[in-house]
UniProtKB/TrEMBL annotation:
Entries under PROSITE patterns matching the protein: HELICASE_ATP_BIND_1 (PS51192), HELICASE_CTER (PS51194)
Keyword entries, A-Z: ATP-binding, Helicase, Hydrolase, Nucleotide-binding
Helicase ATP-binding domain: residues covered: 146-282
Superkingdom classification of source: Bacteria
Designated name of the protein: DEAD/DEAH box helicase
């Protein structure tokens, strides 16, 4: 089978031996004029390619080159008859709709095809409107209807980005009578987008975004991360989900703590409800059987997979000041332009909306700076841009790098940026036509859908082999360009969006010494293999994994992983059991919440934690991070793997985080940045001016005896004796790092303290939410930040926000509240409207 999959690649490469084909195909690719005979020849070739594909559907390369030729021909020559006829046969009804409506003056229906055309017109106009009000393809329509009708307990919908996965979730909810529903999204960034989609349905359900929002409601829809969904089950032993939607289901295959939590969520829910319905959604799964979780025997996974994409793409390479068109079908390079600089190449090949990808945040910022410097047009006086700059100056900082770049229509986002800034900038890129460039890392794949037309890939990842972009990552990136709702929803949009332009740029400053061609060539593959790294997946086989190093090193790594696998499987069985003593309950909680990854020896850690609990006496005067130290750090100093957590043994570190929880997190963003800046300036004058910042920004090492063989001996520090503008932007980054540390690590330990009654409820609420007022706490659980809620309270607007009969948030007096919002800063308006619009 594997050989058959690659057979078409080898056969297509043989086309390079046909000089006439290559000459004509090259002219087509490069938009050169073809003679009548050449047009006839290349269209005939396309028909032969379709014929080969029809003889063996595994030979996807033949279909792709045939479709590319027809699509490219239509766009180059405004001759849509071949594309129309192929679309009729394949069932590409959105393209038929586009041709007959938008291109009706360029193409008229051939009378010989009236019967066939009539059937097609009736079908797509009557039956192929999805819930999103766009025309579906035949394949989409059949898949959607089959899934809606399916009685299977496990369903997988494998489809490219923008092929109706979110609309399928909504339709399945509407067409069934499930009472307890959970939509599991992989990141907090996707919570709001999914929440707004489901909220718009106006269904009679409580919408739950946080585990602490659930109050034994009989009917609810949880839009949750796997951590929050698991906590709901753990706190309510008699509860289960009737249906679980697993978005971005390919993440189940990964080997990391979040994948384990997701897998265990499925196992735990199955134990409580062995007729649970699972719906897996992903663009990146080769075989749905690889999604099967151990100990969940629910039969076969009913799978619908979209085989054919309306869109195609073209690949370009830039290196050594020269550009090339890369023919992915025959593995050939066609020379384009010589002697062109790196940033001029980006500018000359840009569309209205462009995404420049780099994996490292520090390089993302540098690329944005250089792209902005290369653009001569200044938008400073544009009223929309001016307003954004004023907002960022006032609400972030006047020295924020981005305020200069946006004057040139350039913004950047990355994972080391506070979420509210990132989401605000994404929204501006989406809505403001003057902003042409967004420079970002993979965080863009976890945010809102953006109107990207052209993509520039400037790196294939870091030097670490495990962190390089693989073919699945690249397919995901390519899929972000020209989403179908953007291509077909707006009649004014050029159909050129059906062929996305993807540029790979080789430059040592951004890519390093290894050529980016490896990544470029990987997109020749028309199928990809699932690599199951998660030992809790049924099809996991350690022998299918690759281990780097010499033969002996590979053997050592494999033996180590076998031990890890055994522990993981044992842990998963352990957490599914009922336990009735404190030792077991603590162990279960620690595993369920992935706290075990903080320690080398879990049993030793638990022994020390229990000893510390027995010796601890609560006093409300003791600060929370000191309690964390008393329970988790003391006696465990040499057993902690996590450097960030281990730092809490130091009093200065504990004081810093106590202050952050008590004061800093309640401040406005601009105030938080200024407070952090003051801290930097003060620390820069001490005998220890180095600041831990992590590998993303670190440029100096500060050897530690404890970690001399570990990651933290690398360049993870910076010297704070730098100009203020540098410190301001590092302060923005540091805030996000601290927010993530608190959200994903420190808070998990604080919740442990609350769960096991080591700290009382009012003390817990004060630190986590900054108040004991339950009305304010409800709003925080919806996602609003503490400082926004504080302002709403101070402005007497809290009473204007109420909960309906299902416990969902709504505005009591829209007119008054709208008037109030209009007079507030733009970033404040943006955050509030995320949840209330």
């Amino acid at each position: 089978m594997a050989n058959k999959k690659n057979a078409d690649l080898k056969e297509l490469k043989k086309l390079t031996k046909d000089d006439y084909f290559i000459r004509v195909f090259k002219k087509l690719c490069l938009n050169k004029e073809l003679s009548f005979q050449e047009k006839e020849f290349i269209l005939t070739c396309a028909l032969f390619f379709f014929k080969y594909y029809n003889l063996d559907k595994r030979l996807k390369g033949y279909f792709k080159i045939g479709y590319y030729i027809i699509l490219k021909y239509a766009l180059n020559y405004n001759d849509y008859k071949p594309l129309y006829e192929i679309s009729i046969q394949i069932g590409f009804y959105p393209i038929i709709d586009f041709i007959t409506k938008v291109k009706k003056n360029l193409f008229s229906v051939d009378s010989k095809n009236l019967i066939l055309d009539a059937v097609a017109f009736i079908s797509y106009k009557k039956d192929f409107k999805s819930t999103e009000k766009y025309i579906e393809s035949l394949e989409q329509n059949i898949s959607r209807n089959d899934i809606i009708k399916s009685k299977s307990d496990e369903i997988a919908y494998i489809a490219p980005t923008s092929y109706g996965k979110s609309s399928l979730i909504k339709e399945l909810i509407k067409s069934n009578n499930f009472s307890r529903i959970a939509v599991i999204v992989p990141s907090k960034s996707l919570l709001v987008q999914t929440y707004k989609d489901i909220k718009a349905l106006n269904l009679d359900y409580k919408l739950v975004l946080h585990d602490e929002m659930y109050n034994n409601e009989k009917k609810f829809i949880g839009i949750l991360t796997q951590e929050r969904a698991t906590r709901i089950l753990n706190k309510n032993s008699k509860i289960n989900y009737e249906i679980l939607f697993i978005d971005e289901a390919h993440k189940l295959l990964n080997r990391d703590s979040r994948s384990y939590i997701l897998t265990r969520l499925i196992q735990l829910n199955y134990k409580r409800n062995n007729s649970q319905k699972l719906v897996y959604l992903s663009p990146l799964i080769e075989n749905a059987i690889n999604l099967k979780v151990k100990d969940t025997n629910q039969g076969e996974i009913f799978t619908k997979k979209i085989q054919h994409d309306f869109k195609s793409f073209e690949l370009y390479l830039y290196e050594n000041q020269q550009s090339y068109f890369y023919d992915r079908f025959t593995d050939s390079y066609f020379e384009l332009i010589k002697n062109i600089s790196y940033f001029k190449y980006i500018r000359d090949n840009s569309s209205n909306k462009n995404f420049i990808f780099h994996s490292r945040p520090i390089k993302v910022e540098k690329l944005a700076e250089n792209i902005a410097n290369d653009i001569t047009e200044d938008l400073s006086e544009n009223i929309v841009i001016k307003n954004i700059i004023e907002t960022l100056n006032k609400e972030v900082h006047k020295s924020f790098y981005l305020t200069n770049y946006i004057k040139k229509g350039v913004i950047y986002i990355h994972a080391k940026m506070p979420n509210i800034i990132k989401e605000y900038l994404e929204e501006k890129f989406k809505k403001v036509v003057e902003i042409k460039y967004i420079v970002a890392n993979s965080v863009i794949l976890e945010g809102i859908n953006l109107p990207i037309e052209t993509i520039f890939i400037t790196t294939n990842g870091t030097g670490n082999k495990n962190q390089r972009l693989n073919v699945k990552d690249l397919i995901n990136l390519v899929g972000r360009a020209n989403r179908l709702n953007e291509v077909f929803a707006n009649k004014k949009l050029k159909p050129d969006g059906l062929i996305s332009k993807i540029h790979f740029l080789n430059h040592e400053d951004y890519q390093g010494k290894n050529s980016i061609k490896t990544a470029l060539k990987s997109l020749r593959e028309y199928s990809f293999s699932d690599i199951v790294k998660n030992p809790l997946i049924e099809n996991y086989d350690i022998n299918n994994l690759e281990f780097s190093g010499t033969k002996d090193q590979k053997e050592i790594r494999k033996k180590k992983q076998i031990i890890e696998d055994e522990n993981l499987i044992e842990y998963s069985k352990f957490v599914l059991e009922n336990h009735n003593n404190l030792n077991q309950e603590v162990k279960k909680y620690i595993i369920e919440n992935s706290i075990n990854v903080f320690f080398k020896d879990l049993n030793l850690a638990i022994e020390n934690i229990l000893k510390n609990i027995s010796n601890f006496k609560f006093n409300k005067e003791i600060k929370i991070v000191d309690i964390v130290n008393d329970i988790f750090i003391i006696n465990n100093e040499d057993n902690i793997l996590d450097y960030e957590l281990e730092r809490l043994k130091n009093e200065k570190a504990r004081n810093y985080y106590n202050n952050f929880l008590e004061i800093t997190q309640k401040l406005h963003l601009n105030e938080r940045i200024n407070e952090t800046l003051k801290y930097f300036i003060k620390k820069a004058k001490t005998e220890s001016p180095e600041l831990y910042i992590g590998s993303s920004y670190g440029n100096i090492s500060k050897p530690s005896e404890k970690y001399h063989n570990g990651h933290y001996n690398g360049k993870v520090y910076i010297d704070l004796r730098k100009p203020e503008i540098f410190l301001v932007n590092i302060a923005i980054v540091k805030l996000k790092i601290e927010e993530d540390f608190i959200s994903y690590k420190l808070n998990s330990l604080i919740v442990f303290l609350y769960t096991f009654k080591i700290i009382p409820e009012d003390y817990y609420f004060n630190y986590i939410y900054g108040t004991t007022d339950l009305n304010i706490i409800r709003l925080v659980r919806f996602g609003l930040s503490v400082n926004v809620i504080t302002q709403l309270k101070n402005d007497n607007q809290i009473d204007n926000l109420e909960l309906d009969k299902n416990g969902n948030l709504f505005v009591k007096d829209n007119k008054t509240f709208d008037l109030y919002l209009k007079n507030q800063p733009e970033l404040f308006q943006f955050e509030v409207k995320k949840y209330l619009n």
